[in-house]
Please model this.
Amino acid sequence: MADKIPALRLNTIGQLVENGYALRLDCVSCAEGADVDLEALIRQLGADFTLPELRRHAACPRCGGAVTLSMRLAAAGPKPAGHPMAIRLRPPAPPRR
Ligand SMILES: [Zn+2]
Model:
């Protein structure tokens, strides 16, 4: 029997960084996709920002469409070349007047 791998708790973007994960976003509509600059995101949102919240609010910077999140272990070494995908966050609720 294979040993079970203990499940990591990856609920926040801070935990992704702590555990050496990279986060990639792919647009459902226009197939734009790239790694997210997690450190910039943490500066913007805080390390306790949760992944479900991120999924709800993230939008493709090109077309504004929904994106999918995928996580993977980041390889040791420099980040791959290219621009990290800038996440456009939708406001949590429309302003009321
Ligand atoms: Zn798009």
Observations:
- The chain is about 20% helix and 20% strand.
- Strands lie at 21-27, 33-35, 58-59, 67-73, 88-89.
- The first helix runs from residue 13 to 18.
